[in-house]
Every structure is written in C-alpha cells, then in structure tokens.
Amino acid sequence: ILNVEQSPQSLHVQEGDSTNFTCSFPSSNFYALHWYRWETAKSPEALFVMTLNGDEKKKGRISATLNTKEGYSYLYIKGSQPEDSATYLCAHDNNNDMRFGAGTRLTVKP
Amino acid sequence: GAVVSQHPSRVICKSGTSVKIECRSLDFQATTMFWYRQFPKQSLMLMATSNEGSKATYEQGVEKDKFLINHASLTLSTLTVTSAHPEDSSFYICSARGRRALYGYTFGSGTRLTVV
Question: Which of A71, B10, B16, B63 is deepest in the core (most CB within 10 A)?
Fold first, then answer.
C-alpha cells in the first residue's frame, strides 16, 4: 500500500448504533498512526496517536486498534450519538511528515 | 492545550492577485509547519514542510515560486499564493509541530480560498 486509504467514504447510522471504519497505510517508514475528528469550520481534533503494533486505545465511546505489520487501523464508535457526526481522518506519520487518508464522513441520525 | 490560529478563514480574490495566509502558534513554539491543500472529496495533500529559519521543502508537483512559504519565527508561518488562478481555489490548512511534541501536531482551522 503506497497511500493512506480510508473506507467507507461516508457512513449514515442511527443514533445508538455502533460503527467502525478502516484506515490502511504503508507499513514501511512507520512512526505513528494518527486519528483525527474534523467538524466543519473547526480545526481537526486529535483523537489518538498510536505507535505500537497491537496497540488499542480508548476515549469514552471511541476506540482504535493498530496493526503495523499489515498496515491497518480500525476506529470504533459504540452507541453513536448525533454529536459524533464529523469526518474522521487517519494519517500515517513517518516522523518527518503526515500523510492523510480522504476521511470517513459519519452522519448519525437522531 | 496547543492552539494554532489561522487567518483568514475565507478569502475571495481576483485572478492575478496574491493572497497571504497566516498561521500562528499561540502557546507553543512551532519548530515545523506543514501546509496542506484539500480539493473537494479528496485527502488533505501535503504541499510543503518548513522548519523555522530554513527554506521550505516542497512536495513533488507543488510550485515553490507560486506558493511562497515563510517560517521566519517559531510562532508564525505564512503561505502566499502568488498570481492566483481559479484552479488555485481550494481549502488550505496548516499543521504545527512543536519542539517537545514527539507525536503531536496541531492544526489551524483552515482557509477557504476562492479565486474569481
């Protein structure tokens, strides 16, 4: 994998549903994997920085896993709420710069 | 926490004019500034990386004479789009990394540039 790929591109879920999306990234030159939450007209907000293979991080209802050997990370949201609606970005950090995926746009319907 | 202030948030300019976008780190020293551009439904694409006091390093395909980056101090970096054309209309956003931030990058809020 040469680029950072995110899927799906967009997702619509009902309030209360749990959901997850995928980030695929180059396993070479890996330093860290970042997840950001980005609401319109605001700065992207850092959710997680993950560095170790097998790492799993949690922040409230949101959690993420990391597999550096195969180059993927999953972001999970449990019991989605309307306020979770945003674009979720992942980025591959090679310690020189970050390369982003195109994001997953999540819409949570009340 | 770390904050990066980016201005302007929106700008409309005429073809042929130049536009300057500023990013200021308010409570930390930004040793490295990254400038990204995003076209609709596409990724944030890295344009250039600048270290304080050094010339910026541009990504392949990004014209350094068109997109002038200045990072003269640890708290201010600017991107000037020179002789703007309609195809330069895009969303531009900066991201700063501080000296102590091993993994932390802080983003500005972005600038929507429209060239008419």
Answer: A71
